[in-house]
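Page 42, continued from yesterday. The earlier attempt failed because a stray header line got pasted into the input along with the sequence. Redoing it now with the clean sequence only.
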Amino acid sequence: MLLAAAGCRSSGAGTTPPPDPAGGADGGELGIGDVFVVRVYGEDDLSDEYRVATDGSIDFPLLGRVAVDGLDSTELAELLEQRLRTGGILVSPHVSVLVREVNSKRVTVVGAVARPGTFPFGSDMSVVQAITIAGGFTPLASRNDTVVTRRIEGELQRYRVRVDDVARGRRPDFPLRSGDIVFVPQRAF
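This time it went through. Structure tokens are written below.
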């Protein structure tokens, strides 16, 4: 059941999230706070570990500030190769990028769970996985009234997820996106 942000009206849309206008689940794009290693073959002075700054860039030797926010590791490697080549720094650079920490993508789990908090978002993460990471339900959790809040095109959308039904195989698990908030209410006595 979809709960609209204003007034929590039901739209009858079920628990399935709407199609994502951005093209699907979160990809491997770099974001602020992410940490990655750049290796330039045969160039130890250009190989190092980097953290994406608050402006979405890194300070790369001989190139200066390089905007990396929104690029995946392959796109960043290609960009660095191109800039090293066109800048006359290397004739035929070979660059690889390995992401070490994804700090820009998070999911928040609050309410009747053992360890509420904000956790790293993993690709293909679901509501059940997020609740498990948060230590599982407390004894007073109203499992079938779990709500996922998601921002879509600037609007907050809320989705009711019947987690007990998911656990019993009656419904599919609900896929999460980076930035989602999972709220597990307590049962009313």
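Notes: The chain has two domains: 2-23+105-184, 35-101.
Reminder to self: strip header lines before submitting.
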